[in-house]
């Protein structure tokens, strides 16, 4: 402390106590390794398609650089409406939509509106950890309910366990399907059962559906609250342009929620970011209006990538891995691993393949490793060649 | 409530209780008026200069569309450092800098780190209301200390009143100089006096310096904590690209704070927005590195605009207005006005000039009107012609 400083000003202890990202621990420990194949973050290895970038550039040329409405520019509101109707068959009006600066921003603002100190939120894990952190940052208590790993590597939800975790302090159930890191896809029946419970108990469902279009097989989207929830139901659906349109760096997403919650989210958007970047929203308009074929091609590519990784890793005796049903992660267990963080650091050094430790996604993730296969097939083949000797 | 919904899920009452923008009340009430001159928002009427837009477009062409570090891309961190050194003579290292998605976002994340329920924050007003709302949203109690209007229209700070408003619950003093809406510019001595108090008491200063370069006369920047604060001092300086580089719609800003607070802000950035849009940050690099001449021209233009408005309004018997020293607002009192919101709605309809009601900036703003003169001189002349008959 400097001489002039008499008394240290306080930073909130719950904020200081929030854990940092364990994935970043691996990336920092591996910063000096040359020629790494980086499969640790949840993003593809190709930039945003050119037609979307051109949409944003044209907006810049037109001078779309002014303040915009909190809810989003009208053409984006319309494009989001049209997209949900076209892709999901869901008719959702503008009083139920707010655009956000990413899925993360959507989660944080929603949690600001719904969680106060003393409240609890039940989180279905293993899950991307940031939602839990948003709950903690607002003074709430996240309660884990873990999916159960089955013999074949798939995950299942014990519904009774979920309901038993909720009590009078519970404001929110957080669900992510298709799931990061598990690839778990909730069935329409499961979503309906949770919705019936939420209606009965007055508990919000925060449904993170950012991987909703990235699903393999004949379906073109995962079961979704877009179609299952009524306008007044206690359901907040999070979406993002990051995954389906390869726009991670753009920070753009949207919320669908009941009108009364959208009014609160709109107000809190003003006090958080005011609105997503104006010309970025125009990129979003282009993505939604002209991007259907791009998504189709992307999902085909990811399905081939999933096959390649599954064929390479599943036969290894130490590995347990189910064929992914959605999202773009292989979340495999590795016999004998009790410290996935150290294992990932070791594998990065020895195999020069960067992956995310299972512990980053909660205690139920320990013993596992997450590999993001949203990469080109040659790169993935090379990664498999490097990895396999070290997984035997 | 729909038939299936048994119990309404709760939205946090403090969030529901937050007031919406009174400026938006005027804009909504005036939506049907044709040919309005809109001087109600705090932004210029010209788009971002082309060279900055080209910087972002080039980044889009290079495929700068991926996730980035929470603190900001290294070239932007360096450009911010270089700018503060060049413009303020302040040597501030990267451990004291975090980029944010606007000044508003910077304030919200700072408040998340510093304010818990039961804490108070002293706010020097009249002031842009969103900082108060961020404090309330985090469960804190904003306490107003109002600048005193002098006979000549200028504002002064009663230092004892400020100190008396602080007690053991006080975590934060919020100050905005040059001030929106007042145009008040704190002297270096005043800033130092507040700093000494903050050091003694362990209270943070949140110094919103987004208008720091928009100051009239020989100085090229307002007195600033960039030069007055030591690295470990309890000072958070908010800056933004919105005002000095005409980048309101871009949502880009930065924080300067002690390293220990920057570490917390960096972590909370992950849980709020992850990082500002990647190619937007490249636009920021261009703005900072190549924008010095632009700022110089902008301030000259705003000074001429300030003169024009001052010459037109100050002589009117009902008006009291000091010549603005900084920022880009005329915040004039109008004899006989007790309801500035209704007055602004009336003036919008009768004079077709859109302005912001003083009450939007706190009770001490009642009886006043804020006119943003960041507009072209012909437009301002026309606005004066329309307004003057109604202010007599």
Automatic annotation (TrEMBL), chains A, B:
Catalytic activity, reaction form: L-aspartate + 2-oxoglutarate = oxaloacetate + L-glutamate
Enzyme Commission number(s): 2.6.1.-
Transmembrane segments: none
Boundaries of every Aminotransferase class I/classII large domain copy: 41-386
Taxonomy, superkingdom: Bacteria
Keyword Nucleus belongs to the record: no
Alphabetized UniProt keyword annotations: Aminotransferase, Pyridoxal phosphate, Transferase
Co-factor requirement: pyridoxal 5'-phosphate
One of the Pfam families matching this protein, by short name: Aminotran_1_2
GO MF: transaminase activity
Signal peptide positions on this chain: none
PROSITE patterns: AA_TRANSFER_CLASS_1
Family the UniProt entry places it in: Belongs to the class-I pyridoxal-phosphate-dependent aminotransferase family.
PANTHER family according to UniProt: ASPARTATE AMINOTRANSFERASE (PTHR46383)
Protein name: Aminotransferase
């Amino acid at each position: 402390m400097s001489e002039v400083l008499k008394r240290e000003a306080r930073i909130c202890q719950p904020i200081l106590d929030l854990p940092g990202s364990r994935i970043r621990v691996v990336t920092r420990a591996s910063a000096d390794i040359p020629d790494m194949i980086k499969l640790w973050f949840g993003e593809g290895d190709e930039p945003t398609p050119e037609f979307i970038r051109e949409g944003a550039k044209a907006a810049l040329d037109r001078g779309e650089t002014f303040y915009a409405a909190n809810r989003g520019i009208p053409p984006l509101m319309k494009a989001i409406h049209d997209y949900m109707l076209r892709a999901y068959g869901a008719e959702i009006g503008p009083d139920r939509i707010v655009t956000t600066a990413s899925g993360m921003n959507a989660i944080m603002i929603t949690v600001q509106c719904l969680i106060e100190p003393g409240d609890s939120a039940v989180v279905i894990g293993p899950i991307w950890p940031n939602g839990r952190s948003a709950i903690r940052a607002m003074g709430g208590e996240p309660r884990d309910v873990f999916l159960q790993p089955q013999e074949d590597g798939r995950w299942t939800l014990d519904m009774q366990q979920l309901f038993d975790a909720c009590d009078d302090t519970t404001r929110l159930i957080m669900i992510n399907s298709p799931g990061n890191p598990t690839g778990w896809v909730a069935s329409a029946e499961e979503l309906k059962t949770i919705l019936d419970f939420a209606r009965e108990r007055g508990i919000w469902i925060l449904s993170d559906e950012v991987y909703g279009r990235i699903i393999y097989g004949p379906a073109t989207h995962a079961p979704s609250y877009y179609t299952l929830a009524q306008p007044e139901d206690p359901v907040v659906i999070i979406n993002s342009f990051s995954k389906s349109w390869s726009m991670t760096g753009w920070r753009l997403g949207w919320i669908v929620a009941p009108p009364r919650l959208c009014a609160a989210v709109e107000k809190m958007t003003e006090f958080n970011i005011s609105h997503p970047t104006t010309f970025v929203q125009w990129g979003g308009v282009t993505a939604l209006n002209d991007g259907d074929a791009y998504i189709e091609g992307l999902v085909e590519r990811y399905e081939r990538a999933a096959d390649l990784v599954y064929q390479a890793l599943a036969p290894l005796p130490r590995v347990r891995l189910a064929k992914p049903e959605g999202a773009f992660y292989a979340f495999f267990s590795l016999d004998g691993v009790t410290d996935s963080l150290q294992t990932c650091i070791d594998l990065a050094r020895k195999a020069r393949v960067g992956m995310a430790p299972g512990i980053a996604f909660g205690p139920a993730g320990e013993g596992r490793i997450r590999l993001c296969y949203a990469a080109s097939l040659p790169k993935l083949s090379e990664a498999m060649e490097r990895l396999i000797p070290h997984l035997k």
